[in-house]
């Protein structure tokens, strides 16, 4: 016999679940409502994972939620979760999305699957658009910084003019590395970075 569950979530322990639970109780018994007080940025939430676990949802069961973002705030995760419900023959009812609540005659369940497939495609498109927008903003930020003459990444080393001479004397054991750093006024990390590049390429960094 199929079971009816509800799922409610808020992002922190300070927030209240009362409003969601009251709405869900119109369709679900209170003791069948699973709750989480945790961010929707992750799917690894104890209540939600219990629902999907061995003691939770089974083929033919129904899960009610108030809105899609109660499952996740990540569009790509939402798409994958809806597909998971489809594959496991679990009906997902979203109170804020009336098309997901339609009842169809026996033998016409394909209508429900069509609605869910459209929702998956919409979520996938939104997720892809958000990724593209993020990448575009990153590119624009880099280009704007370059126009302003800002150097992105690790700062360039300022290499003293006397580095080749000090390096040669240090390699000839005329003094220690510590003395070489003192003469060049370089920190150990900077000194060895320049040495490594000098020995690899036969030249020091471009003077700045």
Topology summary:
Layout: E1 4-10, H1 18-24, E2 33-37, H2 46-51, E3 62-65, H3 75-87, E4 91-94, H4 110-147, H5 163-171, H6 177-184, H7 188-201
Parallel strand pairs: 1-2, 1-3, 3-4
Helix pairs in contact: 3-4, 5-6
Protein described:
- With about 210 residues, this protein is an alpha/beta fold.
- It has helices at about 20-25, 45-50, 75-85, 110-145, 165-170, 175-185, 190-200, and strands at about 5-10, 35, 60-65, 90-95.
- The chain has two domains: about 5-125, Rossmann fold (3-Layer(aba) Sandwich); about 165-200.
- α1 (about 20-25) links the parallel β1 (about 5-10) and β2.
- α3 (about 75-85) packs antiparallel against α4 (about 110-145) and α5 runs antiparallel to α6 (about 175-185).
Summary keywords:
208 residues; alpha/beta; Rossmann fold; 2 domains; 4-stranded parallel sheet; 7 helices; 4 strands; elongated; disordered C terminus
Give the structure's gist in a few sentences.
The protein is α/β, with parallel strands linked by helices and 208 residues long. The protein has helices at residues 18-24, 46-51, 75-87, 110-147, 163-171, 177-184, 188-201; strands at residues 4-10, 33-37, 62-65, 91-94. Strands 2-1-3-4 form a four-stranded parallel sheet, sandwiched between helices.
Give unreliable regions as ranges: 204-208
Strand content: 5-15%
CATH class of the largest domain: Alpha Beta
Our Rg estimate from Cα atoms comes to: 30 Å
| Total of domains | 2
Strand order of the largest sheet: 2-1-3-4
Which percent bin holds the helix content? Answer: 40-55%
Order of helices and strands: EHEHEHEHHHH
**Fourth CATH level, the homologous superfamily of the largest domain:** Resolvase, N-terminal catalytic domain
Query: What does the overall shape look like?
Result: elongated
Major β-sheet annotation: 4 strands, parallel
Q: How many individual β-strands?
A: 4
Q: Say what the CATH topology of the largest domain is.
A: Rossmann fold
> How far apart lie the N and C ends?
76 Å
- Number of contiguous helices: 7
What's the CATH architecture of the largest domain? 3-Layer(aba) Sandwich
What structural class should be given to the helix and strand makeup? alpha/beta
Mean pLDDT: 84
